[in-house]
User: Fold these one by one.
Assistant:
Number 1:
Amino acid sequence: MISRRELMKTALSGGAAAALTVSRSAHAQDENPWARLVGTYGTVPPPSFARPLPIAPIKRPTATTGAGDDVQLAIRSGFGQPLVGAKTPILGYDGLWPGPTIVAIRGRPTRVTVKNELAEPANIHNHGHHAAAASDGHPLDVIKPGQSRTYTYPNRQSGGTYWYHDHTFGLTGNHVFRGLAGVYIIRDPAEDALGLPTGPCDVPILIQDRLFDAENGFDYSANAGTIFKGVHGNTLCANGVHTPFLSVGTRRYRCRFINGCNSRNLRLALGNGGALVQIASDGTLLNAPVSQTSVELAPSERADCIVDFGAAKVGTSVVLRNLDATWPELPDVLRFDVVRKEADTSRLPVRLGDVARVPESEAKVHRRLRFQISDGKWTINGLRYDPARIDFRPKLGTTEIWEIENGEQTQMHPFHQHLIPFQVLDVNGEPPPAVHRGWKDSVAVPPAGRVRLIMRFYGYTGTYVFHCHKLEHEDHAMMLQQEVIA
Ligand code: C2O
Ligand code: CU
Ligand code: CU
């Protein structure tokens, strides 16, 4: 591991240690007194729907043996084309934004060797992956410039949609904003047998908001305002392009929506009021499809939705909108253009997964976490992240209930747990909606609200973090760590 001091120095030089000085009384009177500190958003660019939705290349293994797949990734700078005109300098896995999509098969390990070709430390965290601590991408376990590391992903967990991203201490927000994120899919033969849309009709859609400077470069700044509210952009990108279109046939599609925004909530809906039929939440299939007119996603949450164009007329279009009201509002995501008649051989079964609810009586340990501002800093239980301190010591093979309270009135915090998934017992005392009754790895804790989660510590001992997934909150130390002990 890189030394703590070394990393702190890097984080500081990146401007990531700007002070968050916010007093409780200051924001009691005003809805958004930080708006003026957050930066100049300019105007939200109108949708163009002029370029196709890019689909990241599927990463080809360099070796495939009985023992799994070997994959090589390089973290390097490159260029994206989110806007028309000048290209945007990015940091990317393989120099791409989003990085290549890694497709694994349940039960077959994937070993990913990552070379850091940047001049600063970076790493990879496979969000939602159940892996040994050495392969988790702990915030202080970074790859030094010029060095390589091999991460082993066992893929012994539910098939579904995951994503990978940088997790460097104090620089995660900066690195992810500049492009260090990609999609990780675990395919499960049992899921394949369901007959859901596949191949080109199975579309990962990584949604991220960005802010640009006059030369189309990313404009990321951590200051008191953005550390408080989180960095928000004025331009929504899907797979690295602002308001693209996707040409579709008259059939079902599986859209794997991922909220990859640093801090922005999304509420996705079809412009014609049509159904988004959710089949999976985070990495796990729901027991049954849930038909909705909108799908809410906090940062890092995923929703796999079936969108059926079977009744649509060739030549028509449907815009995917974002109804979330976070300022500045970004109402357009992409446009589906129905361009051809196509027979549909896919199915949408009434039964999908087999998640059994974990009984509360199974938990012997109850913990409380309070997300709050203390002394003008983001904290959990009044504590900021300290790599030298172990905050919780859960025992391997046991079940715990965590009650997370949001002590903040003005914004939600998305809680994310590493290593193991959880089930949501209740949100503000009410049972969770059907789409949140499976296994999840991130959940929104509403303003002044409370969420109870139940989780089983299984598989690995070692040190793993948990944190707010607003990346500016996480970087400014709204993160603690647990050591899972035998
Ligand atoms: Cu998506 Cu700790 O991360
Ligand atoms: Cu994670
Ligand atoms: Cu937060």
Number 2:
Amino acid sequence: MNDILPEEVERWHKLEAAFRLHAELHGYAEVRTPLLEPTELFQHQMGETTDVVEKEMYSFERHGDQLTVRPEGTAGAARAYVEHAVHAKEPVTRWYYLGPMFRGERPAKGRYRQFYQAGCELFGDPGPLCDAETIDLVAGFLHRIGVADFVVHVNSLGSAGTRARYREALLAHFAPRKDKLSEDSQRRLERNPLRILDSKDPRDVEAASDAPSILDLLDDADQAHWAGVLRCLDVLGVPYVVDRSLVRGLDYYTRTLFEVKATAGELGSQSALGGGGRYDNMVAGLGGPSVPAIGFAMGMERLLTMMQGEASRRRPGCYLAPLGQVGAERALLLAKQLRDLGVAVELDGRGGRLKAMLRRADSLGARLCVILGDAEIERGVVQIKDLVAHVQEEIPLEGAARVLADRALEFSPGGGQRGAR
Ligand code: HAM
């Protein structure tokens, strides 16, 4: 779990703002659900035999409730959708979220125990158009934030009937090879053979290398949906590879599945920037009506690793450097007046030497340093040092806030609230 210090937070803000803008352009509105949910929500929706549920959840009992700190956002969003009967209010619902998720995984670069996801969930549209549009949303977002080195992997898992037939085909394939599988996979063989395909254990990878592909078993309706998705991706010009081995680590998926993988950069084995798919049975499984759904989530730490740009910190428009008691009290008032005018101000109240204060103003990247000496204040003036233009001048104390605000905001894109940049 990471501390994110202010120098870094600036980059997070940019990423979050870009995601909000992009999601809202696609008709999504933000939803905020609790960090804690009943443990059984995740057990039932993500699947009892998945790694996340079996090994990684932070679960505990309190006040008689079995609770889990959310490992992902989809199950909570679907629970909220059902709980608020949103289906009765609108035919199609588009929700996005940003926030921390928790999985007790082995830490590595790009893999943390508290990590942040940006995700979208769409309820109420079963058609392949919306699968392609969702995938395009992710690819478009990556381009928006300057990430170009990625590949979109797509696959279909079919609907329930296809899955049942696929399960039998996998059992027939793996049962004679049972002794060669990892212990986890031997245990999961009967209950959920699909999980073996998602294992990274070299023994399982070897045994799965010639396993049957579900794409060969799709029924007519699944096949038509799948062909529709690929056609729409072509219409949109989204490059993709059909990845028959893609199953993803959660049990709720039906039909379309996708994952976006980085092809360059420092992420190594944690190259999945995001992933998602359809989960047409979850809403009904939670006691709601039969409403299809699709969504995805991206790992924000991984996106930040891929993004260009230096860490930076907000700069003050004005740095106030008082010399003496009278100056300090006058500076207090001036700082308040400037902030009311929308200028970000830092007041140095430590009573230090001028040279040190100027050095500090410079290192903070302030546009203006205002020197308030007792003698000058008696004369009714203050000194201002323009740290960008490198000029110094004296201005009347009376009305100084307005003059300083005009100067400080002049070069500050986006107005004064955020100070100069
Ligand atoms: P997921 O593939 O488990 O899917 O996670 C989505 C993304 O979150 C991953 O591709 C990765 O970028 C990031 N991520 C996952 N675990 C970690 C970790 N331990 N440290 C850092 N980043 C991580 C889901 O969570 C689904 N809820 C996605 C979805 C939404 N499917 C349908 N709707």
